[in-house]
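Translate structure to sequence.
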């Protein structure tokens, strides 16, 4: 029973890491990153459709993104969606594709982005600790009901703390890498 709880905790903590990593890809670092556009929804035949489902998004170089719609009639809708997004880009429409050039980030903007990344990472740490707390509470309920030996419970507590520490350490490394990426000029 306790080993299942530990496996469940690892699985949930892994999902937290995956979510945090995906959120961090949305933070602009001064380099062209097509994944930043995954959250943009385009009005396409009266449906909100993710941009990456109606266009090919690719990098041309370190600072330029090319968006080529599968259906050329949707190019104006794509341009409008990019302008209305919170990304702050000014797309250039040539009739066949949309080009987006990433302007260089100011020092102040880089510092703001570091703070945003830190907040996302801290939310991840809180989530990992909440998973640990839930698993401990669940194990204590089981201990009371099924009379789990004290030694087994102590080992579970040590194991869940070890797993928690390893996931927090991974989040710390992700944070360091993202900060270097953001601050790298």
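Result:
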């Amino acid at each position: 029973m306790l080993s299942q709880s530990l496996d469940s905790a690892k699985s949930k903590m892994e999902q937290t890491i995956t979510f945090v990593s995906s959120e961090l890809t949305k933070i602009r670092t001064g380099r062209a990153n097509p994944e930043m556009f995954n959250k943009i929804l385009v009005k396409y035949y009266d449906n909100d459709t993710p941009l990456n489902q109606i266009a090919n998004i690719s990098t041309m170089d370190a600072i330029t993104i090319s968006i080529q719609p599968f259906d050329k009639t949707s190019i104006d809708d794509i341009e409008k969606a990019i302008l209305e997004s919170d990304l702050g880009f000014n797309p250039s429409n040539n009739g066949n594709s949309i080009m987006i050039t990433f302007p260089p980030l100011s020092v102040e903007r880089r510092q703001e982005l570091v703070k945003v990344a830190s907040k996302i990472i801290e939310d991840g740490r809180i989530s990992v600790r909440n998973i640990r707390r839930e698993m401990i509470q669940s194990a204590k309920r089981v201990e009371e009901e099924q009379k789990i030996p004290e030694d087994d419970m102590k080992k579970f507590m040590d194991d869940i703390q070890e797993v928690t520490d390893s996931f927090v350490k991974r989040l710390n490394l992700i944070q360091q890498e993202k900060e270097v990426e953001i601050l790298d000029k």
